[in-house]
Amino acid sequence: MKLAIKEYWENLKTEYEAAYNVSIFSNSDVLQQYAERFRVYLISLMCEYPNNVDVVCALATVEQVLWHEENSIQLLEDFLEMYSDELSDTDKARVYTNLAFYHNGEIEACNYLVKAEKLHSPYIETYRGLALYHFSAYEDNGSIEALTKSLHTFEKGVTVANDYEMNFGRAVCLFECKEYDKAKTNFEELLKDYPNRMRLLLCIAYCDVYLSNKKQALNCLKQIKIGVDPAYHLNNDDISEFDIIDAYYILDEYGLFLEECEKAKEYCGLSDGPYYFGLWIMNQHDQFYHEVNKQRTEILACIEDAKTDEDFDSEEEKQSYIQSWEDDLEALSTMVHKIKHENFKPTVKLKLWPLYGCYLIDCLTHNF
Length: 368
Fold this sequence. Notes:
Elements: H1 2-20, H2 28-48, H3 53-65, H4 69-83, H5 89-103, H6 107-118, H7 124-141, H8 144-160, H9 164-176, H10 180-193, H11 198-210, H12 214-223, H13 241-250, H14 254-264, H15 273-281, H16 285-308, H17 315-342
Helix pairs in contact: 2-3, 3-4, 4-5, 5-6, 6-7, 7-8, 8-9, 9-10, 10-11, 11-12, 11-13, 13-14, 14-15, 15-16, 15-17, 16-17
């Protein structure tokens, strides 16, 4: 049945793409039109094969494409209620994982993914979804428990699919757990299969920064090219100046740090403590005062604008807004004083993230 369903969708895609020579996914209106035709076909199959997991999962994903996620959830939950006793553990894991995706980060998503995991799901999407759910929880509240769960889930994922994504996620979790030696070893193993991959070089450099391997860290950092990795053409490997800037700052390489800051200033503002500290410690005092005064002027302008702004819902909201800017102004003055008179170095933390992506098993975009 799965092959027949995929063939039907492939014929619909070919019909459009052959006529217009563009991907069916390039135009959302067109995609919706063809998804509706696909939906009609799948509903007819559901009438004939109501207990077929391929059919219900395909119909659920089409409902999602049509922006009817609530229908996707209802379809699968009703299907489980009616046919759970007939389903294999593998089929249940598939439905649970898809349901988790449709619940989109809610606690129900975690619950369904845990159910799928307990059934020893053979689908890598289960482990991707659960690992990313836990990592996001760690990001939100700094929970080490959530980070540990993410690490363990990535490790399980490696046993299902020993691929780049799972191994990279495991290494990132080790890095966030401050297991820098282990993380570096994992990143270096990946580098053997993906030579000169910019994201991996950056991760190794970060590990060396925290391992106090300054020479090795600088060597890696100087090899990294800003932008999308030209060798792998992956947007999720895009490296920004700020990825490099923070590493130079922690290494006390303030000349290189300021050099990269100047490049970054071409398209974004720099108005934070590390930049001010770098200017001061390198005796660029004129530039230091210029940047601080510019920031102070901008804050004062925001305060004055707020005082005359009549769009606030209440006077209380207005005063709260003004107070927040006044707090920023005070924080700026305090920081400047500490940098100048107390040799205060604002802290910076290097951060890594796993690869975020779709974990819908029956995804019309990725898996059909």
